[in-house]
Amino acid sequence: MGYNLLQGKTVAITGAATGIGRSIAVKMADEGANVVINHFPSEEQAQLAKELGKEIGEDKFLAVPGDISKPETGKDLVAKTVEKFGELNVFVSNAGICPFAEFTEMPAETYLKTVEINLNGAFFSTQAAAKQMKLQGKGGSIIGVSSISALVGGGFQTHYTPTKAGILSLMQSEAVALGEYGIRCNALLPGTIRTGLNEEDLANDEKRVAMEKRVPLQRLGVPDDLAGPAVFLASDMSQYVTGAQVLVDGGLFVNLQ
Predict the structure, then answer these.
(1) Which residues are known catalytic residues?
(2) What is the Cα–Cα distance from 61 to 204, expressed in whole angstroms?
(3) Using one digit for the tens of pLDDT, what is the confidence trace for 237-247?
(4) Helices H, strands E: what count in the chain?
(5) Which residues form the domain of 28?
(6) In what order do the strands lie in the sheet with 90-93?
(7) Please, is 162 exposed, middle or buried when counting C-beta atoms within 10 Å of its C-beta (0-12, 13-18, 19+)?
(8) What predicted TM-score, i.e. pTM, was given to this entire model?
(9) DSSP classification of residue 193
(10) Is residue 219 part of a domain?
(11) Could you give the C-alpha distances from 86 to 10, 47, 168, 207, in angstroms and in order?
């Protein structure tokens, strides 16, 4: 049971049919928000979105398919959000991919696709959200899901870590650009979270246990661990927080050696 921290607010979240985005959607709905999600246009994603709608309640939910790497997708998401619920108060840029690849053998297509979805998608969708919030004149909250990878390197993530550093930087710059309109922009930096993105990598028990031992809280994260911090940044409880980066990593970053 929530505390109605987002009562009366309308939230849009990209890439929210699964993983972190889905957990954030459920928690924000539990806190009273209307929730609109973007998902990739596939039958599997559409079915997952339909199930999410049943969980949240059709009267306060909308799913909008679209490839977030396309500039028009963010505009469409915002337009359909306003069409159904009247306004947009919170926007979470969450959609992302992380295909592991060796640097010297990485195909150009892998790099370009990662940048297009992770960074370009974040830029164009938050731009559309900011334009709507500015028009409304009531402020708002934009949250970019970055990563601990914005702060550290990864041998098989040379295409991924720059996009997450870019999202962090994007939120900082948007905070400066949009502050005069009362629009707050912050970044969430998850540590190792068990999602579909790293399921195959974490299937190696020896590697998983080694990773858990590096985390001060002695476990890897789960998508629900991001939901509370996201609600905080979306709510009026964080009304003087902008341009910030919130690590949600179980203490991993401070224990890296």
Answers:
(1) 146, 160, 164
(2) 37
(3) 999 999 999 99
(4) 9, 7
(5) 10-255
(6) 61-65, 34-39, 10-13, 90-93, 140-145, 183-190, 245-248
(7) middle
(8) 0.96
(9) B
(10) yes
(11) 9, 26, 29, 48
